[in-house]
Amino acid sequence: MLFDFKRLKSYLKVLVVAFALLPVIFACEKGDYWINPGKDEAEAPVKAPDFSLATTGGDTISLAGLEGRVVVLFFFSHSCAPCRTAAVNVEAKLHKPREARDDYAVLGIEASNANLSAINSFRSVTGATFPLLMNGAFAANAYETTIDRLIIVSRTGYIHHKSNLAAGCDMETVAEKVAILLDN
Fold first, then answer.
1. Of 41, 111, 132, 182, which one is least surrounded by beta carbons within 10 A?
2. The pTM is what?
3. What does the DSSP 8-state code read for residue 159?
4. Cis omega (within 30 of 0) on the bond before 37?
5. d(C-alpha 110, C-alpha 136), whole Å
6. DSSP per residue over 31-48, as a string?
7. Which of left, alpha, beta for 129 (phi over 0: left; psi -120 to 50: alpha)?
8. Taking the domains of the chain in order of start, what are their residue ranges?
9. Sign of the four-CA dihedral 19, 24, 27, 29
């Protein structure tokens, strides 16, 4: 009997996918998050660093210009597979349900300084309709975060939620906290 290379190839594909998903699975289990300001009175509020970044449409958006709004920041990289999945959920769970509100905004910040073509490709693949901002590596550094992360900035410009969890693992928590902030 001959060795079945086709079967071996399909098993190897399954293993590669399984190993690729391990960091996402463990990120959901190991991450910690903090609320600022929140229930821990000992933790001082942290002012959200301002930024001014170009959109893929050529406009400029600054955090200071969004004062008075609850803002969700989604840090991503155009080449990050978990970010593509998360962007679909950011669109469905965080942006679309509240897109008509004038006291709320969702911003995607491309943190690997990709070119316009790469970011437009990300938008096309994910269906994201929220603004995608370019050249955001310095913003990620200012927020001391990385790609595939969500941060909530309160109406007063303070960081309300910052997590070490992957965005996909943090989506429900962020949606709940946004709802609470918007109801207050």
1. 41
2. 0.79
3. E
4. yes
5. 5
6. --EEESSSS-TTSPP-BP
7. alpha
8. 32-183
9. negative
**Which pLDDT value is given to residue 31?**
42
Q: Any residues with CB less than 8 A from the CB of 149 and at least 6 apart, and which?
A: 74, 75, 162, 163, 164, 165, 166, 167, 170
Confidence label for 44 from pLDDT (cuts 50, 70 and 90): confident
- Cβ neighbors of 150 (< 8 A, separation 6 or more) are 72, 73, 74, 75, 90, 161, 163, 167, 170, 171, 174
Query: Phi and psi dihedrals of 16, rounded to 5?
Result: -60, -45
Pick the CATH number of 32-183 from 3.40.50.11690, 2.130.10.10, 3.40.30.10, 3.30.930.10: 3.40.30.10
What is the average pLDDT across 107-111? 97
